[in-house]
Amino acid sequence: MSAPPKTMKAVVENEAENGVEVKEIPLPPLEDNEILVKVDHVTLNPTDWKHVAALSTKGSIIGCDYAGTVVEVPGSVSHQRSHIRAGARVAGWVHGGLFKDRGAFAQYLKVPADLTFPIPDDMPSEQACTFGIPFYTAFHALKYSQKGPWPPAKAGGWFLVYGGSSGVGLFAIQLAKLMGHLVVTACSARNFDLVKSYGADAVVDYKDADAIIKIKQVTGGGVHKALDCISLPDSNAFTLACFAEGKGQMNVILPPDSKAVAARPDVDVQSTLLYTLWGRAFEFGPRGGAKIPLPAIKEELEFHRELVAKIPEFIALGFKAPPIETRGGIDDIAQGLADMRDGKLSGKRYVYTIE
Ligand SMILES: NC(=O)c1ccc[n+]([C@@H]2O[C@H](COP(=O)([O-])OP(=O)(O)OC[C@H]3O[C@@H](n4cnc5c(N)ncnc54)[C@H](OP(=O)(O)O)[C@@H]3O)[C@@H](O)[C@H]2O)c1
Q: From ligand 1's centre to the CA of 253, what distance in Å?
């Protein structure tokens, strides 16, 4: 394998009208325990266009989810796994959008050696790169926050995945099933077959005026656990209305709507912000505006490491990637971000080849 070059192409924030440009920038300097990965495929998440629109500062590398090949394992790396070697195929996600030396939409990226997973031989990189933010978010909510069992398990009971056709939703359906739940989900009618093929036992159209009544009927009076994968005020209210009376937990992945939450004091509402899984302190907030300082949380990093180590097992258990649409190369990512921002994506992930 030839030595990596000194510079690389990356999608960076430019704070101009379209938000990003492809620029030639230096390769990221590695920190202790970090490896260098030559990226070959990436997928887009809503957080990417949201960072571009309002959070990233000039020069930050955009993008989180990647698949690629290890090219450099410095002597500082103590993590001993068979895929921590030059030439191994790896995938995962990084905290993109906030740093000038850390992001996935680039020819090379750096990542801690113990926070990347080996891609199974029979899995194409185009699929492996989707096991990033949406996959980890489902586990963060159902396993870390709701303290569900590691799959396979027999937890029992109905679980509501609101927004089952979203990236997070398709992984949450599969995880809830592997945790032993019966899964009811809400999505558009055009995606009914899709969510059933990922394991949903029952599905309703969230635009149906009787959707909540139907969910209560199918679940025998309502659920005690749910993940709201859309997490807007209407979806918070919908999801909470599907709970049976008494103790329950709903997880949200955007700040919860206080009015909806106040209406159901019996339901514990917990919010997930996936970036805390890196175990690093950082500031979160709008470009040029007030930032919220977020501390490093040791338990989150420990959970992250434990989850990464188990991913090949979960893939072997049957976790499958969402449907993908391959859409071109690094120069085409800006259009994909705009299409996602404009709500054009439904029931799949956009994947790009990085050469
Ligand atoms: N806090 C965190 O750490 C975290 C982590 C991951 C994601 N998120 C956030 O979670 C949200 C979902 O992310 P994602 O990647 O899963 O999204 P996504 O795949 O891009 O979402 C697209 C899907 O959303 C569905 N949808 C849109 N509006 C809906 C509504 N009102 N009700 C039900 N479904 C609706 C569409 O379903 P239909 O076509 O079937 O209507 C479509 O399939 C985003 O806002 C993202 O920023 C937060």
A: 9
| Alpha-carbon span 225 to 12, nearest angstrom | 39
Count of C-beta atoms within a 10 Å radius of residue 253: 26
Say whether 229 sits in a helix, a strand or coil: coil
Nearest-atom index, ligand 1, CA of 188 = 40
Residues 335 and 241 in one domain: no
In this predicted model, what pLDDT tens digit does every residue of 84-112 receive, in sequence order?
Answer: 999 999 999 999 999 999 999 999 999 99
Distance between Cα 136 and ligand 1 center (Å)? 14
- 203-234: pLDDT as tens digits: 999 999 999 999 999 999 999 999 999 999 99
pLDDT band at 17 (very low <50, low <70, confident <90, very high): confident
Cα of 45 vs centre of ligand 1, distance in Å, is 9
Domain count, the chain: 2
Please indicate, yes or no, if residue 52 is contained in any of the structural domains: yes
**pLDDT per position as a tens digit, 267-302:** 999 999 999 999 999 999 999 999 999 999 999 999
What is the CA(341)–ligand 1 centre distance, in A? 11
Q: Are strands 34-43 and 349-353 parallel, antiparallel or unpaired?
A: antiparallel
Is any atom of ligand 1 closer than 6 Å to the C-beta of 274?
Answer: yes
Q: Is any ligand 1 atom within 6 A of the Cβ of residue 235?
A: yes
**Domain-embedded: residue 58:** yes
Residues of the domain holding 99:
7-131+320-353
Asked if 143 and 253 sit in the same domain, the reply is yes
- Are residues 228 and 154 located together in one domain of the fold? yes
DSSP element (H, E) containing 112:
strand 108-112
131-159 pLDDT, tens digit per residue, is 999 999 999 999 999 999 999 998 789 99
CATH of the domain at 25: 3.90.180.10
- Supply φ then ψ for residue 259, to 5 degrees: -65, -45
**The tokens 């957080």 sit on which residue?**
47
Does the Cβ of 73 fall within 6 Å of ligand 1?
no
**Of the residues 238, 256, 272, the one at which a domain ends:** 272
Any atom of ligand 1 within 6 Å of the Cβ of 352: no
52 CA to middle of ligand 1, Å?
17
Domain shared by 241 and 332, yes or no: no
- Asked if 141 contacts 166 with a C-beta cutoff of 8 angstroms, the reply is no
